[in-house]
Amino acid sequence: MVNKRKREEPEDSDLDEPAPGKQILPVANLPEDFNGDPADGMQYLFLVRRDARRLPRIKRAHNPYEESVRPPVLPLSALAKGVLPCEKWRDIFQSRFRNLRKNMMQPTVHVRHSSLIQSLIPEKKDREAWWKFLAGRPESEWSPAARAESRKKSKPSHNTSVVLERLRNAGQGIDTVPPSGQNPVETPGNDTQTIAVANLPSRVMTEPSDNNLATISMLQDQAQQEDAKLMPREATPSRLRGIDHRMSIHLLMYFAHWINLHLQNFDDASTIITNSHARWMLSLLTKVEDTVSADEMSLLRNLARACLGILQTRRDLKNADRVEAAEAISDASCWMVFTAVASVWGQKDLWTDAEDVLSLS
How far is CA 346 from CA 255, 290, 291, 349, in A? Predict the structure, then answer.
C-alpha cells in the first residue's frame, strides 16, 4: 500500500500577507456616531479607523500662489443683443457652403464649347454690360457680338439729355434743328428711353407743341414700365461654367463697387442691390479657390464690408422711420455673403468689425 501523505492545510492567518493598514491589534466595536473620549487603546484605534474612512482617497495640497480668475464683466455684445448670427448658424452655414463649393467644382459629363459658354455672358471687363445683363436687359445691350455690330452701324451724335433739352427749348421758341447730316440722338448701349426718343418723327423733335411733348412723356413712361417688367438673370450652372477663379474675383469686385455706389445713393432705385445680386455673389464665391493672393483677399474683404455697410445703413433707416424698397437685398443674404468671406477664408477679425459697428445703439 502506498501511504498517502496528508497535506496540511495552512491556517487563514498564514495565507494573509502583511499589508499597510491591515488590522493586527484589536479594535473596539463601537457605534459609528460614538463621540466620547477613548477609554483604552482599542477605542482609540476605532476612532482612528473611522476618521480615516471619512477622508477622501486623494487630497490636493493648497497652492499658496493660486489666484481665482474671474471673467471680466463685459458690456452687452452685438451677439448677445441678437444683432450678429449665432455660432450655431455660422457653423452650419460654413459646412453647407463648403459642400456647395465642392459640388460646383466637380466636372460635368456634358461640357459645352468655351466659345458658346462665353456667348452667354458679357465680356469680363465691361462693368456696365454686366449690370444690364444681371438686370435682365435685352441681349443687344450686353452681348459682345451684338454691341460690336451696333457700334459699326451707329454714328456720333448728341445724347438723350441734349434731345430733351432741345424739346424744352422748342417749347420756348428756340431753334432746335440739328445741323445738316447729323442724327438728333445717340444710342450708346441702346438705352430704352434714348431709342424711344430717337424713333420719333422729325416733326415731333422740331415743332414746339404740347401734343409732341406729351408724346415724349408717354414713350418715356412706356420705357419705364418695360424696365419694371424685366426679369433678372440668375446664376445658372450653364452661365457659371464659363467663369473661373480669376473672373469670379473680378466680378465680385464689381459687386463691391455697386454696393458702395448704392450706399452713396441709397434713395436711387437705379442702384438698388437685390436678392438676385446676392445669389450671384454667393455663386461666384463658390468658384473662388481656397488659396487666394493678398490682393484678392483684399477684394473679398471689401465685399464683406460693403454688405456690412448695407446692414448698418438699414439699421439707421429703421431708426429714422424710413422705408427701403421691397425688392432690396435681405439681411439674411447680406449675412451669408459676409459669413462666407469671414469664415470660409478665415477672416475672423471681420466679426469683430461687425460687432463694433452693429452693437452701437
Answer: 21, 10, 11, 9
Radius of gyration for the alpha carbons in the chain, expressed in angstroms and rounded: 41
Residue 298 CB contacts under 8 Å (≥ 6 apart), including other chains: none
Helices (H), the chain: 12-15, 41-54, 87-105, 114-118, 127-135, 144-153, 160-171, 192-198, 202-206, 210-228, 237-240, 245-264, 275-286, 294-319, 331-339, 349-358
Q: Quick one: which of 122, 98, 133 has its CA closest to 282? A: 98
- pLDDT values of the chain reduced to their tens digit, one per residue, 361 residues: 445 444 444 444 444 454 555 667 888 888 888 888 888 888 888 888 888 888 877 777 888 777 666 655 545 555 556 689 999 999 999 999 999 998 888 765 555 545 555 567 899 999 999 999 999 999 888 887 766 666 666 555 445 555 555 555 554 444 444 444 444 443 333 444 444 444 444 444 444 455 555 555 555 555 555 555 789 999 998 899 889 999 999 999 999 999 999 999 888 889 999 999 999 999 999 999 999 999 999 999 999 999 999 999 988 887 766 777 778 999 999 999 999 999 999 999 999 999 888 876 5
d(CA 205, CA 166) in angstroms, rounded, equals: 8
What are 291's three cell numbers?
488659396
Beta partners for residue 274, in sequence order: 328
What sign does the dihedral 231-237-242-244 (CA atoms) show?
A: positive
> Bridge-partner residues for 328, per DSSP?
274
The CA distance from 277 to 284, in Å, is 11
Cα–Cα distance, 90 to 336 (Å, whole number):
9
Q: Three cell numbers at 71? A: 471673467
Supply angle C-alpha 43, 47, 53, rounded to 5.
140
Amino acid at 216: I
What is the rounded distance in angstroms from the CA atom of residue 331 to the CA atom of residue 133? 24
**What is the three-class DSSP state of 22?**
coil
Max CA distance (Å), the chain: 157
- Cell numbers at 89, concatenated: 448658424
Look up residue 103 and give its three cell numbers.
Answer: 459640388
